[in-house]
Write a structure and sequence with these properties.
Phosphatase 2c, domain 1; 16 helices; alpha+beta; elongated; about 700 residues; Beta-Lactamase; 6-stranded antiparallel sheet; single chain
Length: about 700
């Protein structure tokens, strides 16, 4: 007996230890028999304190616990019985029969129980409540997902869509984002508390249900009824977790939303303001429905971080929208409203959707019924690109007034761009423009309807497309000069090519678009079919033919159709260096103007201009001499000679016998100038036609 007493005491210790474990341990203990029925359970855990043992002991495990999303746990326990391989630290979600029902996370370990003879007795299961740990881990995953996926674009609406996609169904069953309407337009967000009459746009909605009820559709702009949890959150900038009881007082204030909540069977609302530095950007509202557990304080803290990140992303989008709007406005003011179309050259502008503020186009009327066509693109984005574009466009227009060849114009434009780049480089190091190098591409072309040619020069890789009247498409290959602002010293070179009547010229600011239009079997291959239609129809067809994935949404395009200038609107006469040629030139001009049906005053002024220009050419020029009148958008008078000496306008004194001719000419014409060529020079004047009298 003496030798047995220690054994009895050992058994007593073991029995006492088991009793303590099953009555006092905070760890959940379950003994299951070989049929997975509960034999004994720890009654000391918080979960079991309110559970009757009669509902547990003797019942199969699947009847005792309502397992969520892990239906194969019973199969795993049977594998433990069969193989003896333990299950360790497996997370199981269980719905507890509380009011309201709770879903708890348990980390379970299952061990097989064998007797000394090796017979299987059952399974011992330990369960540790790790709900808070798993909730914290889940919240961390949600926050990481939001930070990773929300704010990838500078679009406030897309930002809201990204947020609801990241939250449903992992964190909420329904998610709604509403943004202050003025913020979406780029205005500064209002200071809290948000005025009750502030309109908000519903920008995003997402639900785990396939056909969820909605109080208002996405895109709707309205003012929130008050007082509700939403207006209260926008007033004090504090998020709220609100139980959605059927008798909630605020349901009467917002019956549409109350009805949507009732139909969705939502039981908890978490609403958080989207705030940034005490200003209100919008509101996010999250709902949980049916069996999903209610939001708690930890979820409310997470909502604050989610709202802060989303508000920052929306504000970034707002700032981009505002800058883009300002840049687009500046660009719109700096670019011509409509092309200067002439009888021999019909022109249409095409600015593709989302055109970059640095892209520009222009048409400039030149003497002799000629037209300059300009397309360019400045590096950079936003307002800086738009203002630089305006500077370059102004320089080009100023240089074009001197009627110089395309290669010389680009050379002088390169000098002006270099000065702008030097000014930018001398800005303080902290100025963003200091780090933004100035570079630009530009093509400058001059169409001459009297010779049927087009001369051009390029800075960069911009080249036009030429579609001949028979539909043949050509890409002129002008020597590409250096990009403007790059500091390269390579010279610019001009190229001239024929453009017969019926041809179409297409200039773009994006070489990728030019390459695509040159290769695709699109509208440019059917140009003859557009011969009698509006040029706008061809522009529309070009837009429809550009695939979205080509990514040329920032291109500026000029489309021009060459028309023939009727021969009866041009008159040309050579004359000799004899004083009698002055009277003869006046007589020919008077007869031609009468044939054109021009008024007496215009004819009288033209006779004086012809007399003075022919006299100057005979006195100071070299043969051959030629007089030309052009009846186009203006009345142009040109006198050509073989000399290179340039005339100068001066104010003659009272006692001077000469010097008044060119001054008088400048007073009678609204424009005059000198144009040089390898054969000599041309002095030209332009007179406007009198406006038709209203009846």
């Amino acid at each position: 007996m003496a030798h047995g007493e220690p054994g009895l005491r050992e058994d007593e210790r073991a029995a006492s230890m088991l009793e303590a474990l099953f009555t006092q341990s905070p760890v959940g203990l379950h003994l299951l028999d070989s049929d997975l029925r509960v034999v004994r359970v720890n009654i000391a855990t918080p979960v079991m304190r309110t559970v009757s043992l009669d509902r547990v002991v003797g019942h199969p495990i699947h009847e005792v616990y309502d397992v969520v999303e892990d239906e194969d746990i019973e199969a795993a326990l049977r594998d433990v019985l069969r193989t003896g391989i333990p299950v360790r630290q497996r997370i199981v979600r269980v719905r507890l029969p509380t009011d309201p029902p709770q879903v708890r996370h348990f980390e379970i370990t299952a061990l097989r129980l064998d007797n000394p003879r090796g017979a299987v007795l059952g399974v011992a299961v330990t369960a540790v409540d790790v709900t808070e740990r798993e909730h914290s881990r889940a919240r961390a995953h949600v926050l990481e997902a939001v930070r990773r996926s929300v704010g990838r674009t500078l679009d406030a609406v897309v930002t809201g869509e990204e947020l609801v996609a990241a939250l449903v169904p992992t964190f909420a069953d329904i998610a709604i984002v509403e943004v202050v309407d003025a913020v979406l337009r780029g205005d500064d967000p209002p200071v809290a508390p948000l005025p009750l009459d502030t309109p908000l746009m519903r920008t995003a909605f997402r639900s785990r249900d396939r056909h969820p009820p909605q109080a208002r559709p996405v895109g709707d702009i309205s003012r929130l009824p008050a007082p509700t949890p939403f207006t209260q959150a926008l007033a004090d900038l504090c998020p709220r977790v609100v139980p959605l009881r059927p008798d909630a007082a605020w349901f009467r204030v917002d019956p549409q939303r109350a009805e949507a909540i009732r139909l969705s069977r939502a039981h908890t609302l978490l609403t958080a303001p989207l705030t940034l530095r005490d200003t209100v950007v919008g509101l996010v509202s999250l709902y949980r429905t049916e069996q999903t557990p209610p939001f708690d304080d930890g979820d409310r803290e997470l909502a604050v971080e989610l709202a802060s990140h989303t508000a920052l992303c929306i504000d970034n989008a707002r700032r981009y929208t505002r800058e883009h709007t300002v840049a687009a406005t500046v660009q719109r003011q700096l670019l011509p409203r409509a092309p200067e179309s002439h009888a021999p050259l019909e022109t249409a502008y095409l600015s593709l959707t989302g055109a970059d503020p640095g892209a520009w186009y222009d048409t400039i009327a030149l003497s002799g019924a000629r037209t300059a066509l300009v397309v360019g693109s400045v590096s950079g984005q936003g307002l800086n690109a738009a203002t630089t574009m305006g500077q370059l466009r102004t320089v080009i227009r100023s240089l074009a007034a001197f009627d110089i060849p395309p290669d010389e114009l680009l050379a002088r434009l390169q000098d002006a761009t270099a000065q702008l780049a030097a000014e930018r480089a001398n800005l303080p190091a902290g100025d963003p423009l200091h780090r933004d190098a100035l570079a630009a591409d530009c093509v400058y072309a001059i169409h001459d309807p009297l010779t049927g040619t087009c001369g051009m020069a390029c800075a960069g890789r911009l080249a036009p497309l030429v579609v001949l009247p028979d539909g043949t498409l050509r890409v002129p290959d002008p020597p590409s000069g250096p990009r403007l602002g790059t500091g390269e010293d390579a010279p610019f070179a001009s190229v001239e090519f024929d453009v017969p009547a019926g041809s179409v010229l297409v200039f773009t600011s994006d070489p990728l678009l030019t390459e695509y239009l040159a290769e695709c079997p699109g509208p440019l291959r059917q140009v003859p079919a557009y011969g009698d239609r509006s040029l706008r129809d061809l522009c529309d067809a070009l837009v429809y033919a550009i695939p979205p994935d080509l990514r040329v949404g920032d291109a500026a395009v000029i489309v021009s159709r060459v028309r023939s200038l009727p021969g009866d609107r041009i008159a040309v006469w050579p004359f000799t260096p004899h004083p009698s040629s002055v009277a003869e030139a006046r007589h020919r001009a008077r007869a031609q103007l009468k044939a054109w049906g021009l008024d007496d005053e215009t004819a009288f002024n033209t006779e004086i201009i012809v007399s003075e220009l022919v006299t100057n050419a005979i006195r100071y020029g070299d043969p051959p001499f030629q007089l030309r009148l052009i009846n186009d958008r203006t009345l142009t008078c040109e006198v050509r000679d073989g000399g290179a000496a340039a005339p100068h306008l001066r104010h003659a004194r009272t006692v001077d016998e000469g010097g008044r001719g060119l001054f008088i000419t400048a007073q009678l014409a609204h424009g005059w100038g000198t144009r040089y060529s390898p054969e000599g020079k041309t002095i030209w004047t332009e007179q406007s036609f009198p406006a038709p009298r209203s009846r």
